[in-house]
Design brief:
Blueprint lengths: L7 H5 L17 H10 L16 H6 L3 E2 L2 E5 L10 E4 L3 H7 L5 E6 L2 E5 L17
Antiparallel strand pairs: 1-2, 3-4, 4-5
């Protein structure tokens, strides 16, 4: 158990990390994975490896890695196809919840893959507050 899901120790050893999904064996929602990296709690609420917790910013950075070169973070540059996640509230609020309900729009490779345009801002707030 002590060696399961290491994050902080690998990051501290300067080993490049990137986020991903265990789908179809796990939930494909990256926000749930980021929340798990921060809280280190199981579905039953038990904590596993508290010393391996990441900050919300470090958990988000796992998903900003360039998939072709995991030692490099992706950058927003003119002419590149957009990979963008637009939130409906400031990061200061989102970082406490790390919940996909806060995503307003997602663009991948320049194409809209999620658009919550038909949902009112008050709908869909099912995520519990996540301690930071």
């Amino acid at each position: 158990m002590p060696d399961m899901y290491r994050l902080r120790s690998l990051m501290s050893a300067a080993i490049p990390l990137c986020g991903g999904s265990d789908a179809p064996y796990g939930d494909p929602d990256p926000w749930k994975s980021m929340a798990a990296a921060v809280t280190r709690t199981t579905l039953a609420g038990a904590m596993i490896g508290e010393e391996e917790c990441l900050s919300p910013e470090e958990a988000l950075a796992l998903y900003l890695v360039d998939p072709r070169e995991i030692s490099r973070q992706r950058q927003i540059v003119p002419g590149a196809a957009a990979d963008l996640c637009l939130l409906d509230r400031p990061w200061a609020e989102v970082r406490r919840r790390l919940c996909s309900d806060d995503v307003r729009l997602t663009i991948a490779a320049g194409k809209i893959i999620h658009d919550r345009v038909d949902q009112s801002p008050c709908e869909g707030r099912a995520c519990a507050d996540t301690p930071a």
